[in-house]
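Deliverable D2.4 — example input (structure tokens):
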């Protein structure tokens, strides 16, 4: 098949040559583009034609500018970050510790049986005290109960109970 042309190749070559000749002879001459005609939205009567109607309408390009997003809409092209938001963490204020009664300022000396029950002997700041259940000791303590092995005091400003072990020497 080399060196010989087939009927099909000859037919296609002839059609191509004919298309080229037709294009060169007739050419591509396009008619002039028609001028745009702008008509007013409301047609004026044909009898009253004003010179303003013949003027072309000026496009207001500034109206085509991009309007920034409002609170009602969402800006689709705003910059976004996928990083987690940093939240300022305030250290929590530690609540003030609840007030506690001071340690008992008494030393146990002993007990004895009295007319009204057990009477405890105590020492406070070098002073010997003899108290029974229900007695106030100064303005801050009251002896609530006297038992053979435990004395129970109430710290009056906080109404807190404290115990003192009764040790016999």
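Example output (designed residues):
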């Amino acid at each position: 098949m080399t060196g010989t042309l087939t009927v099909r190749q000859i037919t296609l070559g002839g059609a191509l040559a004919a298309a080229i000749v037709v294009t060169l002879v007739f050419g591509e001459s396009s008619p002039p583009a028609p001028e745009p005609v702008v008509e007013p939205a409301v047609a004026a009567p044909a009898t009253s034609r004003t010179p303003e109607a013949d003027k072309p309408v000026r496009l207001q390009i500034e109206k085509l500018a991009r309007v920034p997003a409002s609170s009602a809409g969402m800006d689709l092209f705003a910059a976004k970050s996928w990083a987690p938001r940093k939240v300022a963490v305030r250290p929590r204020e530690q609540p003030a510790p609840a007030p506690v009664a001071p340690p008992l300022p008494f030393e146990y000396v002993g007990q004895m049986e009295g007319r009204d029950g057990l009477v405890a002997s105590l020492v406070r700041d070098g002073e010997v005290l003899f108290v029974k259940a229900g007695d106030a000791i100064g303005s801050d303590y009251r002896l609530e109960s006297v038992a053979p092995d435990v004395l129970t005091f109430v710290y009056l400003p906080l109404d807190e109970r404290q115990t003192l072990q009764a040790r016999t020497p």
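Residues 7-26 form the longest helix (20 residues).
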